[in-house]
Amino acid sequence: MAQERTGVATLKGNPITLVGPELKVGDKAPNFTVNKDLMNQVSLADYAGKVKLISVVPSLDTGVCDAQTRRFNEEAAKLGDNVVVLTISVDLPFAQSRWCGAAGIDKVVTLSDYKTKSFGEAYGVLIKEIQLDMRSIFVIDANDTIQYVEYLGEMTNHPNYEAAVEAVKALV
């Protein structure tokens, strides 16, 4: 059974339980398997040698998640070819594709944690009560070492976009 952390996060002020470890700067990034579409999966190894900004959102169909993904899509265009921006949610892959098409998102790679919750458990962001991934940001260097982490205490808050982008820029 995976480790559970209570009292560290809320949803609209109500306590929630996060499943998995709390990762820290300097930790080796855990591997994960998520869906690129309904049939094809990818893992951390698929982005080997690149700096990875992983933006985790509960659902693209909510206001803060929408704004977060649009913001990182804008930033991705400026970060260069050695950087990949991944947005991970538990939304189904076809819902992610529909949302990206409607929103004009073309620089961020959307990945779905719906099938196994592998990412959520490995990165300590799976919300036990509702089986969504908690809003968070991870910046991982080309050698798969975590260089920046932001676990949000309240799901409905925005992350620190500037700090995450600066962490990426420091690595390229």
TrEMBL record:
Record: active site: 65 (cysteine sulfenic acid (-soh) intermediate)
Domain Thioredoxin: 23-172
CDD domains to which the protein is assigned, alphabetical: PRX_Atyp2cys
UniProt keywords, alphabetically: Antioxidant, Disulfide bond, Oxidoreductase, Peroxidase, Redox-active center
Record bears the keyword Disulfide bond: yes
One Pfam entry name: Redoxin
GO molecular-function terms, A-Z: peroxidase activity
Position of the signal peptide: none
EC code(s) of this entry: 1.11.1.24
Similarity annotation: Belongs to the peroxiredoxin family. Tpx subfamily.
Protein's UniProt name: Thiol peroxidase
UniProt source species: Paenibacillus aestuarii
